[in-house]
From TrEMBL:
Its cofactor is pyridoxal 5'-phosphate. It comes from Malassezia psittaci. GO terms for molecular function: cysteine desulfurase activity; iron-sulfur cluster binding; metal ion binding; pyridoxal phosphate binding. Keywords: Iron, Iron-sulfur, Metal-binding, Pyridoxal phosphate, Transferase. SUPFAM superfamilies: PLP-dependent transferases. GO terms for biological process: [2Fe-2S] cluster assembly; tRNA thio-modification; tRNA wobble uridine modification. This is cysteine desulfurase. It catalyses: (sulfur carrier)-H + L-cysteine = (sulfur carrier)-SH + L-alanine.
Length: 506
């Protein structure tokens, strides 16, 4: 029998609710929902202490303990077999990821029973939630090899990017007014830089090479004694390219520091900020080894809950920021506001699972994300490129495998998406108020508007299955072939006509 804690929680006579209000329940009944379908997947789990199970006429006798690992396995299997017929396949893992049921499991007590304000110092409700939130912080710090004191909770990577870039630039503005970033950053980085330009700062937007990586010589040439911060993302959200983070960190510590001395001894080197939203838990990151001073992180890209992120802010040598949110002085005074305990616990658990998972990065067992995702990525790419001609891979083949960006030449990406209603993907076009703009990231790689518009991003994640990949490939091949048959341009290409040589009238 399938029951949910929500149902139990709402009906006050049910055992969960009674147990919960009796306080300190170790028998929290929990519900799990398949990450990509809305149907309840598994029923209930009990906390370790089974012995104190409440005898109650209302007890659900079909309920049985389910371990987190079992719940996880069921979630993976259920992804395919329990999908309702009208639910599309989700291949948009860079947009967001489903919450891992094990993460939800860790969070639930903090929505029901342990609801104290983690900043309340005078009673046990505050102490227990503070301990839980700090444990979450510790897991995040361990994932990036940082000290927990260097992890500042925020609402997500957008806020962290704003906080880091605006915060550093404004703090050091008396001496330094120059910022460096790249043309392919996320909008929230680019817009933060634009906002700073309005305040009088100078910003260099570095171009990228055709594989999406920056050229380190160009970075070196752009550095000035007055450069306060360099912001280069670790993994790009559209093409999965991985930037040479270690090399950048090293350059700022050596050449950048030398330049800064021109402004007088004691002038800090340019700080290195990286937007790690798409990298956290996907590829190994060691902030010390890479010379990172600030890093933005987001929980919902990592199978954690939405609405929480963090900013790593180095303590030694200290990075100073002007906070963008003022208030009670929480989070080292850098980000005031009450920590959302359940979200912090969930983010922490997602980070803990990612670390555990990445420790097995070389393991060929497909249960582990990296092996699983790499195998599915290869399966998708091989399947499509062996059956469809004129497909280009955008970005660097050595990039993050879970983000595959393909151009299906001579087809309009939006028509492709319209014909693929049962698959959730992103296209190489972005909706602005009036029109469809070609993606600025693809344009920065050198793609023309037509090829940018003909591109799709396939985002593969922990819960994607082989069946889903095969279904998607069959669908793509059929739709691309059908659309090309209808396309006069495709016919001309088939006849050997060079489209660039045509002078179109009108
Ligand atoms: C690279 C990158 N940075 C920042 C963000 C924003 O993250 P959040 O949704 O946590 O604000 C995203 C999400 O789309 C992203 O992919």
């Amino acid at each position: 029998m399938i029951t949910t804690s929500l149902r139990w929680g709402i009906s006050g006579t049910r055992p969960l609710y009674r147990k919960a209000i009796q306080g300190r329940t170790s028998l929290l009944q929990r519900a799990y929902v398949s990450p990509t379908s809305r149907s309840p997947l598994a029923t209930v789990a009990h906390e370790a202490n089974q012995s104190s199970r409440v005898a109650n006429d209302d007890q659900d006798h079909d309920a049985h303990p389910v371990s987190r690992e079992e719940i996880f396995s069921r979630a993976i299997e259920g992804n395919w077999s329990e999908r309702p017929a009208n639910r599309p396949i989700y291949l948009d893992a860079q947009s967001t990821t489903p919450t891992d049921p094990r993460v939800l499991d860790a969070m639930l007590p903090f929505y029901i029973n342990q609801y104290g304000n983690p900043h309340s110092r005078t009673h046990a409700y505050g102490w227990e939630t503070e301990t839980a939130a700090e444990q979450g912080r510790q897991h995040i710090a361990e994932l990036i090899h940082a000290d927990p004191k260097e992890v500042i909770f925020t609402s997500g990577a957008t806020e962290s990017n704003n906080m880091a870039i605006k915060g550093v630039a404004r703090f050091y503005k008396a001496k330094k007014n120059h910022i460096i970033t790249t043309q392919t950053e996320h909008k929230c980085v680019l817009d933060s830089c634009r906002a700073l330009q309005e305040e009088g700062f100078e910003v260099t937007y570095l171009p990228v090479q055709s594989n999406g990586q920056i050229n380190l010589d160009e970075l070196k040439a752009a550095l000035r004694p007055t450069t306060s911060i360099v912001s280069v993302m670790t993994v790009n959200n559209e093409i999965g390219v991985i930037q040479p983070i270690r090399e950048i960190g090293h350059m700022l510590k050596t050449y950048g520091a030398e330049l800064a001395k021109e402004l007088g001894r004691g002038t800090p080197k340019p700080f290195f900020h990286t937007d790690g939203a798409q990298a956290l838990g996907k590829i190994p990151i060691d902030v010390n080894d890479a010379g990172i001073d600030l890093m933005s992180m987001s929980s919902h890209k990592l199978y954690g809950p939405k609405g929480i992120g963090a900013c790593y802010v180095r303590r030694r040598p200290r990075v100073r920021l002007e906070p963008i949110i003022s208030g009670g002085g929480q989070e080292r005074g850098l980000r005031s506001g009450t920590i959302a305990t359940a979200l912090a616990v969930g983010f922490g658990e997602a980070a803990r699972l990612a670390k555990e998972n990445m420790a097995r990065i070389s393991d060929t067992n497909l249960q582990y994300d990296h092996a699983h995702i790499s195998a599915l990525a290869k399966r998708l790419q091989d399947n499509i490129t062996s059956r469809v001609e004129m497909v280009l891979l955008n970005g660097d083949p050595k990039g993050y495998p879970g983000c595959i960006n393909l151009t299906f030449q001579y087809i309009e990406g939006e028509s492709l998406l319209m014909a693929l209603k049962d698959i959730c993907l992103s296209s190489g076009s972005a909706c602005t108020s009036a029109s469809l703009e070609p993606s600025y990231v693809l344009r920065a790689l050198g793609l023309d508007d037509a090829n940018a518009h003909s591109s799709l991003r396939f985002g593969i994640g922990r819960f994607t299955t082989e069946q889903e990949i095969d279904f998607v490939c069959d669908k793509i091949v059929a739709v691309v072939n059908r659309l090309r048959e209808l396309s006069p341009l495709w016919e001309m290409v088939q006849d050997g006509i060079d489209l660039k040589s045509i002078e179109w009238s009108g």
